[in-house]
């Protein structure tokens, strides 16, 4: 059994269950299976209203970011992947069905041990899928736990979705420093939709009062405000990543609007989703000066 120390970030773990329950209203492979396991095994003790709250825009956001990241991943020929804050994402399960891919899922100890147990119920053996306890903000870095699993001299793809949005500016800087170290050693790219501006979040809440309720639930659970912890404008987010030593290529989430299954499943107005996604991008970050 993994060590189960209490971590100041543990309260954020519950949001992984909320997101996973939202993902069941999509056609993302394994999303329904994972959500069902969570429900049948009573893995999350959200109170009744929290359990039943759902926001159509949250589901659209979650599906869009997952599929937009996949689209960006497909542009790189990188076969070793380190996913931060994996939560209950099914990407590792899916991508590791290709035996040429080394996929490392990571999260806080309590979350990653739960994830590993759930995945073992869905697939018997996946020798190229690994689970590591990594606090992405830790200094010294815990990313080095992945070194024995990575091939030296080959680039690494680092992924994360829905992590930085919960972190303070200082904590985001710690994650950036840890990512920089790995990219310096291996080369590669960091793909994330997590540099968001609060303006777009506030506008989406005006379009969907359920989203407002759900984000408030998240804030109550984590003690962290998505609005306070993110950037006033997208330009401020860009400025931040430049200052952290990254070069950025942006990929609009509108690129996946036609792939969103939840629009039909939940009967969502595509125009509202289009408005929301117009302000959302996946960032592909590489080191500004790889050799320095
Ligand atoms: C909103 S959930 C997103 C989970 C998953 N990426 C997804 O999109 O479904 C936030 C995740 O961040 C993880 N987390 C929180 N603080 C962390 C930290 N310091 N290091 C690594 N993971 C962390 C939580 O355990 C949780 O799984």
UniProtKB/TrEMBL annotation:
Annotated source species = Nostoc commune NIES-4072
Gene3D superfamilies for the chain: Vaccinia Virus protein VP39
List the protein's name.
Answer: Tetracenomycin C synthesis protein homolog
Q: Which Pfam families match?
A: LCM
- Domain of life, per lineage: Bacteria
Asked if the record carries the keyword DNA damage, the reply is no
GO BP term (any one): methylation
Q: Which UniProt keywords apply?
A: Methyltransferase, Transferase
Which GO-annotated molecular functions does the record name? methyltransferase activity
Transferase as a keyword?
Answer: yes
């Amino acid at each position: 059994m993994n060590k189960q120390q209490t971590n100041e970030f543990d309260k954020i773990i519950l949001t992984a269950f909320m997101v996973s329950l939202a993902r069941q209203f999509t056609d993302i492979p394994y999303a329904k299976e994972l959500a069902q396991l969570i429900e049948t095994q009573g893995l999350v003790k959200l109170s009744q209203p929290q359990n039943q709250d759902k926001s159509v825009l949250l589901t659209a956001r979650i599906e869009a970011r997952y599929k937009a990241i996949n689209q960006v991943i497909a542009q790189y020929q990188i076969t070793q992947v380190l996913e931060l804050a994996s939560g209950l994402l099914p990407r590792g399960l899916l991508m590791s069905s290709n035996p040429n891919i080394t996929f490392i899922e990571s999260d806080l100890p309590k979350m990653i041990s739960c994830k590993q147990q759930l995945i073992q119920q869905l697939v018997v053996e996946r020798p190229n899928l690994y689970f590591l306890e990594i606090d992405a903000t830790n200094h010294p870095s815990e990313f080095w736990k992945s070194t024995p699993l990575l091939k030296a001299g080959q680039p690494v793809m680092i992924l994360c979705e829905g992590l930085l949005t919960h972190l303070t500016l200082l904590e985001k800087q710690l994650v950036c420093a840890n990512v920089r170290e790995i990219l310096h050693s291996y080369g590669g790219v960091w793909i994330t939709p997590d540099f968001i501006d609060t303006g777009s979040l506030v506008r989406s809440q005006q379009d969907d009062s359920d989203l407002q309720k759900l984000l408030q639930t998240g804030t109550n659970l984590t003690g962290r405000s998505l609005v306070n912890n993110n950037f006033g404008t997208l330009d401020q987010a860009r400025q931040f990543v430049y200052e952290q030593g990254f070069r950025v290529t942006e990929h609009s989430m509108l690129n996946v609007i036609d792939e969103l299954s939840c629009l039909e499943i939940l009967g969502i107005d595509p125009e509202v989703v289009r408005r929301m996604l117009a302000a959302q991008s996946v960032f592909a970050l590489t080191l500004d000066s790889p050799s320095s």
